[in-house]
């Protein structure tokens, strides 16, 4: 069947029509399955729960991802097991899918023409947040560790919550699958001998419009429905992969377009500069042509002789410059040979400077002591002077008294 001209909406409409028009026989039995059907891409989060008695008890394929986000993908370095290796140059779409054929949940991300992530979620997987915008989980089947870097902390939280939900759903699906296998095995082991005895004891009975005829028609319709479902599943799977590839190609083309636009703006900015340089080159060319014409017309010597003289003069100037550079190199080399002597002299000067500093400190200490001694001596001298003044005053008083006494004695003698 050719699905190349069928659109996504047509496919979804066909699936829903097939579900509604199929000969479904609902019966209250133990193999009745609770199935979840997505009505449309715009109502992904509004799920309708239907009790449909499918003979195979299998889920309807989810044509759209359960959850999608954009993140930078990394893988652990298999050699060191410590460093992260970028798996994509830019942020890519990371989606949760349900694989109805294997009854498993997967995390899939496609970059270009290759699958960057193809991880089957098991019940024992754990998504760990290692920072505000980065998380990781280990895939033992792929023998690697995947890391996702998100643009915001909210995206990381949403992915972690969705990971927990899908992991719980994977655990329930695993338990349900194990229970189903055990029930089918037990039913086959019990029903096989009875069917064999019925075949040996009674021939086949054909009943028109009886229960057997209804069951045969129901089984035929269910087989047809199963084949249609398988074809639709295959087509939807191919459509999802093509959609992811087209989305990756779209982001790649947008990136290339942005680079080309930036290069175009840069080229437009440089056009004026290039025009100015071209005009300057043209003016220089015209000037040189005029000089050549003047030299050819008015030159007493030939152009070749004048060029030879100019070249000779330029050569002499270059030789002089070369000699000057050689002399400068020689001087620098001689200075380099005296570098060690200068270094020793510098060390000796530093040593002498240190000794002078020590002597200076000693002299400062001695000066301080001398100043203290001088201050104490001045104080002693001042005290001595004060004492001498006091003694002089006492002596003056005594001398005055003696003088009075002498005069009194003279008066007495004269009498």
UniProtKB/TrEMBL annotation:
It comes from the Eukaryota. One of its GO terms (biological process) is G protein-coupled glutamate receptor signaling pathway. It holds the Pfam family WH1. The keyword Cytoplasm applies. This is WH1 domain-containing protein. Belongs to the Homer family. GO terms for cellular component: cytoplasm; postsynaptic density. Transmembrane segments: none annotated. The keyword Signal applies. Gene3D superfamilies: 1.20.5.1700, Pleckstrin-homology domain (PH domain)/Phosphotyrosine-binding domain (PTB). Its main location: cytoplasm. It is found in: Cytoplasm; Postsynaptic density. Keywords: Coiled coil, Cytoplasm, Signal, Synapse. GO terms for molecular function: G protein-coupled glutamate receptor binding. Residues 257-394 form a coiled coil. Residues 1-28 form the signal peptide. Residues 54-170 form the WH1 domain.
């Amino acid at each position: 069947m050719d699905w190349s001209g069928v659109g996504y909406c047509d496919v979804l409409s066909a699936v829903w029509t097939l579900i509604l028009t199929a000969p479904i026989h609902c019966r209250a039995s133990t193999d009745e399955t609770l199935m979840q059907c997505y009505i449309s891409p715009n109502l992904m989060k509004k799920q309708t729960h239907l009790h449909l008695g499918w003979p195979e008890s299998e889920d309807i394929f989810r044509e759209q991802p359960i959850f999608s986000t954009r993140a930078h993908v990394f893988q652990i370095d298999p050699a060191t097991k410590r460093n992260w290796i970028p798996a994509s140059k830019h942020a890519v779409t990371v989606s949760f899918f349900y694989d109805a054929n294997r009854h498993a949940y997967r995390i899939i991300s496609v970059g270009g023409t290759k699958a960057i992530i193809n991880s089957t979620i098991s019940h024992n997987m754990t998504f760990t947040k290692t920072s505000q915008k980065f998380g990781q989980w280990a895939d033992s089947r792929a023998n690697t560790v995947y890391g996702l870097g998100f643009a915001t902390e909210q995206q990381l939280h949403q992915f972690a919550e969705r990971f927990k939900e899908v992991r719980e759903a994977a655990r329930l699906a695993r338990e349900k699958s194990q229970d189903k296998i055990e029930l089918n095995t037990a039913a086959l082991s019990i029903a096989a001998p009875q069917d064999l005895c019925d075949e040996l004891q009674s021939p086949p009975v054909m009943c028109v419009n009886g229960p057997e005829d209804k069951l045969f028609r129901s089984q035929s319709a269910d087989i047809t429905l199963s084949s249609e479902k398988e074809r639709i599943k295959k087509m939807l799977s191919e459509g999802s992969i093509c959609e992811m590839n087209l989305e990756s190609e779209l982001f790649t083309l947008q990136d290339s377009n942005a680079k080309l636009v930036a290069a175009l703006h840069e080229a437009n900015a440089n056009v004026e500069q290039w025009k100015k340089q071209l005009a300057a080159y043209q003016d220089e060319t015209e000037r040189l042509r005029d000089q050549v014409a003047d030299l050819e017309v008015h030159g007493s010597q030939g152009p070749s002789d004048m060029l030879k003289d100019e070249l000779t003069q330029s050569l002499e100037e270059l030789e002089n410059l070369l000699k000057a550079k050689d002399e400068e190199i020689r001087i620098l080399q001689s200075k380099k040979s005296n570098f060690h002597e200068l270094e020793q002299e510098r060390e000796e000067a530093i040593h002498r400077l240190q000794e002078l500093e020590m002597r200076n400190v000693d002299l400062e200490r001695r000066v301080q002591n001398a100043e203290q001694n001088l201050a104490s001596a001045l104080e002693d001298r001042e005290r001595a002077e004060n004492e001498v003044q006091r003694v002089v005053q006492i002596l003056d008083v005594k001398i005055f008294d003696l003088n009075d006494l002498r005069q009194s004695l003279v008066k007495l003698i004269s009498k």
